[in-house]
């Protein structure tokens, strides 16, 4: 049986409770044998329905409203030139188009804590009708107050709820405000690779120049697991990347897509350079609670000399498994938050009041449980996910892929380069055209009905070759035995 058949067969244990088991006959290896396998296909998945609905609506609109506008010279604004590609739009649409099992995009398919969804319902339908109206632009008072209480304890320092916290529409917007609020044209921003794909376009949109420093991947061993901690940051490479124009460094720990949790030694070495060269740090810590034992999350803002130069970005969506709520926040000294506030007030000004109210309720509940790891969702969630992580790793090994065991987050990389009998068009090295991992993912999605994300999407153009043997899986899914 070929590796996709074996993987899809095992993947039936990771299906949603609403998924249907579908029998599929897959072509396998060069001998053209057939193998009947079971795999989970979410026939009514939201992604597929959205994709197909949007295509139907577009077709209907074109038929009902034919274009009679004279042709005029309208083009994309220069500041967006080169920023029109988006990995999530492309590969989510591809998965829906081919009705593939989607283990690429990162979100849980299990329910969030009941108390936060009930709090959202109460906020919208309760007696306080003002919760359906605008709230304070920089953060709903109830929310920023409890954020201050929780993270004053986390950082072991007092945090002012009104001047040192900024609530935004997702951590995405917190990143945007942190970057656009501090970067001027020609400023250089160091980005450690692999990186979440929005960092580069945000820096470029602000007029800055991204400078990339890649973690060094280890040598892969067929059928043997590796760990995200095997990816190492060469401090000589990092030091060499700084110039007189360097203004900021963006750090992501736990790292998406790799799952690497930076050690205190690594963060201390980064901090030493930043202090010596007077550099700002944007620390993307949206997965801060999704840490798998025995690893520990070290916050760079807590290191000596780093609080005054660090903007830490966080996510309610990752904290409470409500990624669709799109709520995040930044914590930093007042002078840095003020610059972020200026950026926010000229973009969206405020975030949805009912969602902020519901997240505030959730944080108030968990604040009282933080000393009890058996009850606090901040700790029970990663304890649940570690079993899913290990199950995914076991399946990948059995199918001939080499898993990269993450120390935190939702995701696991896998090296597919040792697979046999793959089409030659996929296995050709990257030569200035589409990266090999992208070709592999498109082939696998179309032919084997299994969708993942190519890891080269998380690298700069000059370093995509480092990722050409890796694909990213998401394991934050419901497990159910066949």
How would you describe this structure to a colleague?
It is a single chain. It contains 15 helices and 16 strands. It has 482 residues and is an alpha/beta fold. The strands form 4 sheets. It has a 7-stranded mixed β-sheet, sandwiched between helices. Strand 1 and strand 2 (33-41) form a beta hairpin. Helix 1 runs antiparallel to helix 13. Residues 13-46 have low confidence and may be disordered.
Secondary-structure blueprint:
Blueprint: H1 3-11, E1 20-28, E2 33-41, H2 46-64, H3 87-97, E3 101-102, H4 114-125, H5 141-155, E4 165-168, H6 170-180, E5 188-193, H7 199-205, E6 209-214, E7 226-227, H8 235-241, E8 246-252, H9 264-277, E9 280-284, E10 310-315, H10 316-319, E11 328-331, H11 334-345, H12 353-367, H13 377-398, E12 402-405, E13 411-415, H14 424-427, H15 436-448, E14 450-451, E15 453-454, E16 470-474
Parallel strand pairs: 3-14, 5-6, 5-8, 7-12, 8-9, 9-10
Antiparallel strand pairs: 1-2, 4-11, 10-11, 12-13, 13-16, 15-16
Which segments are poorly predicted (pLDDT under 50) over 5 or more consecutive residues?
13-46
Secondary structure: helix percent: 25-40%
How big a fraction of the residues is strand? Answer: 15-25%
Which value, in Å, is the CA radius of gyration? 23 Å
Shape: globular
